[in-house]
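ok trying this again, last paste got cut off
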Amino acid sequence: MFILPLRLVLLEGLAIPEKAEALCNTLEDALVLENHTLFGESDHAGLWAKFKTAIENSGDVAVLVEAILDSLKTGVRAEFALNLLELDDPKKLQPPFYILDGLKWLSGQLTERQEDLGLIVTKVAPAAEEQPEA
């Protein structure tokens, strides 16, 4: 099991210091903490509903993280995954920072490889100087 530090934004309604940190154990808890507003607004059933209740009833980050982990013990993750696929506006769902960082790294690696193969050019050659007409 990996424990990943998660940078949090200020969660509305929770007593969280400006620089709070939560340790995430799963993709699900990282998603919930990164997208607390989205999970708090939606009316899905199952794990999603448990996460919404946890957000509404938690007074601080530690309580919220514990409630999310308790929900994961009895919830059906497949149903939760289907709820994610059924979002009306999937662009509202923000990936956890560690996934976003990994995607940025991968993009950089791919760009580097494409440059090495000559498939793309990232440096623009200076324009040729114009010669005055005689």
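PB: full thing came through this time. The longest strand covers residues 4-7.
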